[in-house]
Amino acid sequence: MKLVPTTITRTTCIYIIINYNNMFYIYHIEGKKVGCTNNPFKRVTQQQGYYDYKILAKTNCIDKASLLELEWQKKLGYKKDIRTYKETINNFKTKKMIHVTNQTITFKKTFNNKLEGFEFPSFIEVDDYIIEVNNEIKEFLINNNFKSKHSEERYIYIQSLKNYWDVVNKPKNNIEIFNNIRQWAKERGIYEKGNPQTQYVKLMEEAGELAQAILKEDINEIEDAIGDIVVVLTNLAHLQSMKIEDCIESAYNEIKNRKGKMQNGTFVKNK
Q: The pTM is what?
């Protein structure tokens, strides 16, 4: 097995013969993207048309490769992929194994009612749903599939799967979340030794991190920054002898019947 050179150029790539079995490569097309593949020549040169690129890392573990791709995208300032490499591969395999219609999802190969032999994907995409195939979803698929009248294939009804996903994915009680935040803050002395001024400074710090995350289009950092802001606002409200839940409810009651229109991306209320 020959080693992959760090930098691939138009001159060298035509002479490279590589055994790609069970190896994953993180590649960088400068100014374009960071990606992951198990065959750089086919993926980058033949499919994408680039001859000049660098191999940043390689591993025989797809989970590690998936993490390395996201880490290098962040490190080099590229937009991070919504799905990991492994999730993308699983999704591609899924399209070969299932057929989705308006009403049903059919498993293309023949399985028994327990779907023995079916390689479950990480996600199933249906309409505007991205359903994570965790243990609860696997159990649902096993217990709620039916044999086709026209073949040996088996299927499930999409609406029943979506309804079940809504149940298992139901958000946690908001009051419980805010209570947990307050308990966390109390245990760390934020309410005893902190004050509204310091929490406001912290709020501005988190808002700055949110602004940076938005500019970088980093979904994970945006989510993290928004969550941090909610935590700070919860503590700030408590230090003012208020509850964040009451503040939110008051604000909603104020705006729920408000009329207006969108201007330059912002809702402007009628005077």
A: 0.40
